[in-house]
Hints:
Elements lengths: L1 H45 L27 H6 L19 E5 L1 H8 L8 E3 L12 E4 L2 E4 H8 L3 E5 L10 H18 L4 E5 L6 H4 L8 H18 L2 E3 L1 H4 L21 H12 L5
Helix pairs in contact: 5-7
Amino acid sequence: MNEKKKIRVRYRLSVLFFGAVLIFGLVFYRYMKTVSLEDVLSQDRQITFFDHSKKESDEQPEGGEESPEEGDGADAAAAEIVNPIPESEAAEESYLSDCVFIGDALTFGLGSYGVIPSSNVLASVSLSVMNIDTEEVDTQFGATTVIDALGQIMPKNIYVMLGSTGAAYTSVADMYANYQSFLNKVRIACPDARVYIISTPPVTSGKENSAESPIKNADIDDLNTRLLGYADNNGVCYLDLNSAFKDESGCLKSDYAENDGMHLKYSAYTAFKDYILTHVVK
């Protein structure tokens, strides 16, 4: 009888011990899981590409997406940028070999006219700020998205000009939200590249008053103002091509415009290239 009691006691002790180990293991697992999560969140808060603490506002950018952040060297790079980028001594044409130009039909013209080598132009006539994340373009790597192409090219300088295609039927707020989202992805894909936003060019007065798909220069100016703000707040360069292409009335110069009042002639693209070469951040 005593032997049976001893067996039962040992059995109960074993059960209690096993239960205690199990409870400890569960508590420890939950503790470690919590610590790991907090640690990850803490790291996310500590990663900074661009330090916005010295900016006038730390508000989240319109569109609900925060800008990418950078390391300690970003402050020095941002400090040397004065937007819009002022005119400078003209760079050699060889500078363009380290540049990639991204955009819609207007940017596509740089390559189709041969003003910029087509291999340095990531654009198409169907591309717009609203579909640039998914629309594929023809590249030296085959048909691919702009972001994927950038990841393979890794250029030193990236120029982005969007906002003309789709401007007739897309609100400025929606265009800007997509624009800034794309710019953030560009900066993440090529963190060492210098990024230039080229302001959206104006349209002619005829295009403003067209019965079919009119575009208002006031809307273009609104978009460009928002893009200038993005550039100032994120250490990005801003080129005021819009002002350079305006006539006395604030519309696209007639000798630069195709018959539709929006697309550009060859003379405009040569002026476009000259503007790029004379507005370079050294």
